[in-house]
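Try this one yourself first.
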């Protein structure tokens, strides 16, 4: 693997597995969806069923696809990213608590057996 590819892989791995990045991406997806919804692009998703209310079909297709994609990202992907950030935070907390002091969990031995 080349040196540049290794740096890129490390950067992407760092970016993808940071809690702030996951939460930031989730917020970005929801904000983009809200902006497109407020712009009224929901009507342009009618092109999916073959109906179009505007004569300019090219821009309608692009707006409809962007609206559909951001809807999917906001409704399906954003909650998954938030759950991943929460799980990451809990695992990091558990690992720091284990490192702090408890050490290994003592095993129970039966003295009378």
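Now uncover the answer:
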């Amino acid at each position: 693997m080349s040196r540049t590819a290794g740096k890129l892989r490390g950067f992407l791995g760092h970016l993808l597995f940071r809690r702030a990045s996951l939460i930031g991406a989730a917020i970005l997806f929801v904000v983009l969806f809200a902006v497109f919804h407020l712009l009224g692009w929901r009507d342009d998703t009618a092109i999916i069923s073959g109906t179009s209310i505007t004569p300019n079909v090219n821009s309608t297709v692009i707006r409809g696809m962007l609206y559909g994609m951001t809807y999917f990202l906001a409704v399906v992907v954003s909650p998954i990213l938030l759950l991943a950030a929460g799980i990451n935070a809990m695992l990091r907390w558990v690992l720091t608590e284990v490192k702090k002091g408890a050490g290994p969990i003592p095993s129970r031995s039966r003295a009378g057996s």
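Discussion: The CA atoms of residues 35 and 41 lie 9 Å apart. Residues 19-89 form one domain.
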